[in-house]
Write a structure and sequence with these properties.
The chain is of the alpha/beta class. The chain folds into 2 domains: 173 residues, Rossmann fold, CATH 3.40.50; 74 residues, no CATH class. Helices cover 30% and strands 25% of the residues. The protein has 9 helices and 12 strands. Strands 6-7-8-3-9-10 form a 6-stranded mixed sheet, sandwiched between helices. A 4-stranded mixed sheet has the order 2-1-5-12, with helices on one face. A two-stranded antiparallel ribbon has the order 4-11. Helix 4 packs across helix 5 and helix 5 runs parallel beside helix 6. The protein is globular, with a radius of gyration of 18 Å. It starts with 5 loop residues before the first strand and ends with a strand. Keywords: ATP-binding, Nucleotide-binding, Transport. InterPro entries: AAA+_ATPase, ABC_transporter-like_ATP-bd, ABC_transporter-like_CS, Metal_Ion_Import_ABC, P-loop_NTPase. GO terms for molecular function: ATP binding; ATP hydrolysis activity.
């Protein structure tokens, strides 16, 4: 891979839950301007990889380096503003009292300072992103009243409102209707055309070739990765979905870490 195109570099990343390794010696690069799918069986460590990259989990070893456009070298605060995360639908507490517009406006908080004082421009951006995902008419509805596909579109609108360089999405197409699936993929492809970096945990092998530029085969370790045209093969599929690697017992617990205890990921401008 052309190093000038690399947006994220994961090197020797190992993560364990208790004494059980979930990821082992993961090495993978993600290219800007591409929509990359991360696929593998249940329990392969796909969501764990994302959470480790986002600094939600502390790895046993390894590094994650983000290459973003930064006016300030070594600014962790800046790198966080360049990453938008869309979690799995089922991991969100949908009962919290908030309107659709409130949710999307949360995407502007990183631009609004400590007091979250938003501007007319912020509100206009939120409205524009709701229009983009086809949810403008639902602005005043409670998020809890929406269908699964509608909720997913709202969370994508929130990510769009952040205006980041990197989008990390955990199963954004799981359980959504066909209309929502087409809307989401159209937007992701448009973002890639704008040289954004997009990582998508995906579960449907039937749509990988149609939807994605690059693919990462993951089953606790990286089996293969690269362009879909050359790497999405029967051999790699078989190796990923039938192989359960024998991983050493780490004897060390993975732990959730607070923002004060985390080792910040590194990046270069």
């Amino acid at each position: 891979m052309n190093q000038s195109k690399v947006a994220i570099d994961v090197t020797d990343l190992t993560v364990a839950y208790g004494a059980e390794p979930v990821l082992w010696n993961v090495n993978v690069q993600f290219e800007r301007g591409k929509v990359t799918s991360i696929i593998g069986p249940n329990g392969a460590g796909k969501s764990t990889l994302l959470k480790s990259m986002l600094n939600f989990l502390e790895p046993l070893s390894g590094t994650v380096t983000f290459h973003v456009n930064s006016p300030t070298k070594n600014s962790y605060k800046h790198i966080k503003k360049q990453i938008a995360y869309v979690p799995q639908n089922r991991t969100v507490d949908w009962d919290f009292p908030a309107t659709v517009f409130d949710i999307v406006m949360m995407g502007r908080y990183g631009k609004a300072g400590l007091l979250h004082r938003t501007t007319k421009k912020d509100r206009q951006i939120a409205k524009t992103m709701l229009e983009k995902v086809g949810m403008a008419s639902f602005s005043n509805r409670q998020i809890s009243e929406l269908s699964g596909g509608q909720k997913q579109r709202v969370f994508l609108a929130r990510a769009l409102a952040e205006e980041p360089e990197i989008y990390i999405l955990d199963e954004p197409l799981a359980g959504v209707d066909v209309t929502t699936e087409k809307i989401i993929m159209k937007i992701l492809k448009e973002l890639a055309a704008q040289n954004k970096t997009l990582l998508v945990v995906h579960h449907d092998l039937q749509t990988v070739a149609e939807y994605f530029d690059h693919v990462v085969f993951l089953n606790k370790e990286v089996i293969a990765y690269g362009p879909v045209a050359t790497k999405f093969t029967d051999e790699n599929i078989a190796n990923t979905y039938q192989k359960l690697p024998d991983l050493p017992n780490q004897g060390t617990s993975r732990k959730e870490v607070s923002s004060n205890d985390r080792k910040h990921p590194s990046f270069t401008g």
